[in-house]
């Protein structure tokens, strides 16, 4: 079954339904197509599909659609028996970069030809915008701080300029608005101290923000999250270090702390602070938040290992925390 977001790619998916369906069925055979009608609808469709016996679910859309499908699979008692794959046609396209499948035809070939692999899934416990405790899964990258504001700014636009431009402009806008806050970061039970942070990020995958390479050494199946603590900086230095995001060298910037861990908690130290979350490009709430890695919990089709694009020259090795 294929879960389809007709609003993906600025609505082009809905406009090109017949062409897309033909391409998909030509590559992988007959499918049943399930269309979302609103944000948050995909997990319901996934639940109904699994209850009806589906064992292979493909997500046709962008990173937000993939995020919802993964959450639907992980929330179902029989989700462990389901194989997940992506058919990327959205704006940001960061998960497809990690998987090495950069176009729909490429992804279709990978789904057919590559072996199914068991990969890790991230989990976040946090608070929604109304202050209620909640939780979600993520497959790629999660964070809190300026990244959550970027998500909200970008997701309020049409994204017609494409993922890379939309997220770069969103980042520039956010830098002018964001007010850093003091946080405590705890990794695998060890306090990493108090930080005036621009962002705290954990990576199961490599990319976020329309091609920004936050965690070039992250692996979907190593049982760990790659952690970055990015300190606050004035506007101009912050703009200048955005080049490191695309080069995969952010951890080499002075003041950035990097490590690997299985669980990371971020706690704002000011009661009134609002530290917005980013989960796979969506911003569903605020910190305090605990991110954790769940090894080999998802069966994934279409991962073209190794992924050369996830290698950055000069990116220092990050040890796991003791």
Short descriptors:
single chain; 322 residues; alpha+beta; 14-stranded mixed beta sheet; two-stranded antiparallel sheet; 10 helices; 16 strands; 29% helix; disordered C terminus
Topology overview:
Layout: E1 2-4, H1 12-15, H2 17-28, E2 33-35, H3 42-51, E3 56-61, H4 63-75, E4 83-88, H5 94-99, H6 104-113, E5 117-127, E6 133-138, E7 141-145, H7 146-155, H8 163-177, E8 181-187, E9 190-203, E10 207-208, E11 212-213, E12 225-231, H9 235-240, H10 242-247, E13 257-261, E14 263-268, E15 277-279, E16 286-300
Parallel strand pairs: 1-2, 1-3, 3-4, 4-16
Antiparallel strand pairs: 5-6, 5-16, 7-9, 7-15, 8-9, 8-14, 9-12, 10-11, 12-13, 14-16
Helix pairs in contact: 2-6, 3-4, 7-8
Précis, in short:
The chain has helices at residues 12-15, 17-28, 42-51, 63-75, 94-99, 104-113, 146-155, 163-177, 235-240, 242-247; strands spanning 2-4, 33-35, 56-61, 83-88, 117-127, 133-138, 141-145, 181-187, 190-203, 207-208, 212-213, 225-231, 257-261, 263-268, 277-279, 286-300.
Explained architecture:
Helices cover 29% and strands 31% of the residues. It has 322 residues and is of the alpha+beta class. The strands form 2 sheets. Strands 1, 2, 3, 4, 5, 6, 7, 8, 9, 12, 13, 14, 15 and 16 form a 14-stranded mixed β-sheet that branches. Strands 10-11 form a two-stranded antiparallel ribbon. A hairpin with a 2-residue loop joins strand 8 and strand 9. Helix 2 runs parallel beside helix 6 (104-113), helix 3 (42-51) crosses helix 4 (63-75) and helix 7 crosses helix 8.
């Amino acid at each position: 079954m294929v879960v389809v977001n007709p609003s993906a790619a600025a609505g082009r998916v809905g406009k090109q339904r017949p062409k897309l369906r033909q391409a998909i069925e030509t590559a992988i055979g007959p499918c049943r197509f399930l269309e979302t009608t609103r944000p948050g609808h995909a997990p319901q469709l996934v639940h109904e599909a699994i209850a009806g016996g589906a064992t292979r679910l493909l997500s046709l859309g962008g990173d937000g659609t993939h995020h919802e499908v993964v959450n639907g699979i992980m929330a179902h008692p029989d989700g462990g028996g389901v194989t997940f794959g992506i058919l990327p046609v959205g704006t940001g396209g960061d998960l497809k970069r990690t998987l090495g499948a950069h176009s729909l035809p490429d992804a279709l070939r990978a789904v057919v030809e590559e072996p199914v692999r068991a990969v890790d899934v991230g989990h976040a416990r946090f608070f929604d915008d109304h202050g209620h405790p909640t939780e979600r899964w993520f497959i790629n990258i999660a964070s809190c701080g300026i990244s959550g504001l970027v998500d909200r700014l970008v997701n309020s636009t049409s994204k017609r300029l494409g993922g890379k431009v939309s997220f770069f402009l969103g980042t520039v806008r956010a830098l002018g608005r964001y007010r850093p806050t003091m946080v405590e970061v705890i990794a695998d039970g060890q306090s990493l101290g108090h930080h005036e942070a621009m962002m705290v990020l954990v990576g199961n995958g490599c990319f976020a923000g329309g091609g920004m390479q936050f965690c070039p050494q992250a692996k979907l199946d190593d049982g760990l999250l790659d952690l970055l603590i990015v300190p606050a900086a004035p506007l101009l230095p912050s703009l200048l270090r955005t080049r490191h995001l695309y080069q995969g060298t952010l951890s080499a910037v002075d003041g950035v702390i990097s490590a690997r861990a299985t669980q990371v908690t971020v706690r704002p130290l000011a009661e009134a602070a609002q530290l917005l979350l980013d989960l796979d490009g969506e911003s569903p709430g605020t910190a305090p938040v605990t991110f954790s890695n769940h090894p080999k919990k998802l069966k994934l089709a279409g991962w073209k290992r190794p992924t050369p694009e996830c290698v950055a020259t000069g990116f220092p090795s990050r040890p796991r925390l003791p």
